[in-house]
Structures
1.
Amino acid sequence: MTASGNYIAESDVDNWPSAIAATEDFATTAVAISTDRITVTNNIATCTEIQFSSTGVVPAPLETGTVYYVIRVDATHIQVALTPVLSAAGTAIDLTDVGSGTHTLDIGSGSSTVERQEVIDRAEQLIEEITRDYFYSKAFAVYRNGNGKDKLFLGFVPHILSVTEILISAVELTSSWYTFNIDSVYLDPEALPGAGESAELMLRMKRKESLFPKGMGNIKITGTYGWSVCPVMIKRAAIILCRYENDGTLYTKYDDLVSDKLGDKTEVRGQKKFLTGVQEADRLIQNYIRKRPTMGVA
């Protein structure tokens, strides 16, 4: 499972590190290894903290996500230093290649929008791995064997939200004929056939002929299933996990729980089974753990 900001937004988390002051992209042609200079659009002062990332590989020996310090050459050129002291002294890192792809320079040591989204994605993915569920709607398209009845069980976990089309041996079933509930599609007992359809539908209902004739994979159903609204508890758990990643002192880790001696009785809370490792988040998501895996669909 892969989540991507389906439960919470960046604004839901209130303890992000300071944001990046400015960001600019630059091409490999902006890197001059003969002078160890990088051409920039911002006029960046010496000793300013910076970070690099790239769609390819950053110029060697720079590393993605490492904080470096600017040596200002002029308004449009910088060099890079390892420490503030080396920056002030003008001692630049020797750039040995220009890298590949499009590079990004983040000015400041705070977190970028991309980094914040990565934190959210990690929290949501962890919740999904633990619960064996996802808390948003997904499209499905499945083939089922006709059972010779008027009701066909799809067996989805979580529930069906909508059915947009049913094909029987590649022939579309008129949408007014059927309806659905949380786990199946079936002949609508209150179906109102359109012009030209009344005779066929009435004949089926009178003779009890099945809506879904027997066959191997002859019924195709498309629609959506899952959760129409993310539960409040899941949102709160995702926020806690993000806040915890930003500040590990805010919540209780299971490793921090110690043995308590009550008379001659010892309760070792540190050995209690945990889910995320953060007690406050586990309390919120434990009731959403599914006993059976979510059914895969195409």
2.
Amino acid sequence: MFRKVLRAANNNVILNVDMTEITHDNVRYWWRQVSKQRYERDSDPWKSAVVFLKEQPDVIVHSYIHQRRRYFCWYFPQQFNIDLVTVTEVYIDSTWGMNGQNTELFAIIACEDGYGVPIGYMLIEKMPTDDSRKFPGEVIDTCTHFFSHAKELGLIPIIVHIDKCTAEIAAIKVFSSFVSI
């Protein structure tokens, strides 16, 4: 890592830095600064993530970051050469309490030849528990959008594996009346 930071300093990517008395903390700090230049597109991390994903080849992004509860979905079946029309079985799950960013990550995993292959994700802003009483159905609506966009891409599974997440259960009906829950 030190060599990469030194190379960045020598190539004027990092300006006005004396590399003679550098510490581990300096290396970590400057490594983050150099890395940010590759992926940061906006000071707002939500906008930055959406813009970055839209720049990626074969990635389809649907952004709802202007909503009260921000979220966005992205799909990338072409990166794994998956024809969504042929997918008959999917797994849908979300993280819970896994990060300090106050977000939850939902995933659609296609079962392809006995392997689980990710085909889409949704990142959603978490709100306080009592918020659900003030804005009922909001998470269900986000999941419905997530699954609807997957359906627009051709995904109509016969079997959907989910856990006991009520938002997923309520929204999964968007795929088809033939879906087994």
